[in-house]
Design a protein that fits this description.
Strand content: 15-25%
Order of helices and strands: EHEHEHEHEHHEHEEHEHEHHEEH
Number of helices: 12
Largest sheet: 8 strands, parallel, barrel
Structural class: alpha/beta
Bound molecules: glyoxylic acid, magnesium ion
Helix content: 40-55%
Distance between the termini: 31 Å
Low-confidence stretches: none
Strand order of the largest sheet: 1-2-3-4-5-6-9-10
Radius of gyration: 21 Å
């Protein structure tokens, strides 16, 4: 282990994160009654410019008046390059700071972006004598943000999570695709011809590098990596496949842009009973081995060692977090 200890951000269940446009307050109650872990009320891209002010009012009213049943609440503010942003921050903190847990910052580009927000939020919190500090969720969704992701992830004590904004990322990198998330048939390898001249097309995952890079930056700084949207909400299998790939790389959750995706995310990002039982057996077997002075043992025909315990503990911890939610 390095001498450098990675401090973990505030622990929260973040298997599913539902996007709800601030301009559509009719959806707030439904979101509050759902099984989602985190709700983010949107002021940014789901809200047209002439609806921004009303959306802000709707969100502040919704935060204060609705019973959100213990859910983590976030608001996606407008970008730092717009004049809406400062008013988003000031009004939210002045009028709803007790209700709000997180602010989601879109299109993060540099460490200075985080610094600027941290300064503004701190000033307003101090002015209203806020009892708690708001955390930050950052959407990594531009080439600039991805280039600087390592430094950005260490930029403030307020940071809790990084999110992969696949749609804006595709636009920013000028990727040749128009869908939101999921695989692309053009991103494939063609096998060599077999004896009969047949070749096979094997699809790849064009998002692998971006998600993996974000996961490393997040984990190296104690933050939660969260996968972003999957646009085709009629394709549950496609969503599950994408979520499984992200979970396999280390993501803790995924956005839901439609209520039907909440259950899918909660299922994919929760360990199964079988996985928890197996993890517990690994921990127990290693405890026995340690007592006997051994560093590694065999369980069910496979080698397990100290690293196996750490993997198993992640699984058991997650199960406890879910049970306690
Ligand atoms: C989310 O904001 C995205 O751009 O995918
Ligand atoms: Mg975006």
């Amino acid at each position: 282990m390095s001498f450098h200890i990675v401090e973990q951000a505030t622990a929260r269940l973040n298997r599913s994160e539902l996007a709800v446009p601030g301009s559509n307050p009719g959806m707030f109650e439904k979101a509050a009654a759902s099984d989602v872990d985190v709700v983010f009320l949107d002021l940014e891209d789901a809200v047209a410019p002439d609806e921004k002010e009303q959306a802000r009012k709707n969100i502040i009213e919704g935060l204060n008046d609705i019973d959100w049943k213990g859910k983590t609440l976030s608001v996606r503010i407008n970008g730092l390059d717009t004049h809406y942003m400062y008013r988003d921050v000031v009004d939210l903190i002045e009028q709803a700071t007790d209700k709000l847990d997180l602010i989601m910052i879109p299109k993060i580009g540099t460490v200075s972006d985080v610094y600027a927000l941290d300064m503004l939020v701190t000033q307003v919190e101090d002015a209203v004598k806020a009892k708690k500090r708001i955390g930050f969720e950052l959407i990594v969704e531009t080439a600039l943000g991805m280039q600087n992701v390592n430094e950005i992830s260490a930029a403030s004590k307020r940071l809790e999570s990084l999110h992969f904004g696949v749609a804006d990322y595709a636009a920013s990198t000028k990727a040749k695709t128009t869908v939101i998330g999921g695989p692309n048939p053009n991103y494939h390898v063609l096998t060599d011809a077999d004896d009969d001249g047949n070749r096979e097309v094997h699809w790849g995952d064009m998002w692998h590098y971006a998600v993996a890079r974000m996961v490393v930056a997040a984990r190296a700084n104690g933050l939660r990596p969260i996968d972003g949207p999957f646009g085709d909400f009629g394709d549950a299998d496609g969503y599950i496949a994408q979520a499984n790939r992200s979970a396999t790389l280390g993501c803790e959750g995924k956005w839901a842009i439609h209520p039907s995706q909440i259950e899918l995310a909660n299922t994919v990002f929760s360990p199964t009973e079988e996985e928890v039982t197996k993890a517990q057996r690994i921990i127990d077997a290693m405890a026995e081995a340690t007592k006997a002075g051994k560093g590694a043992v065999t369980l069910d025909g496979r080698l397990i060692d100290i690293a196996s315990i750490k993997q198993a503990e992640v699984m058991v911890e997650k199960a406890k977090q879910i049970a306690g939610s």
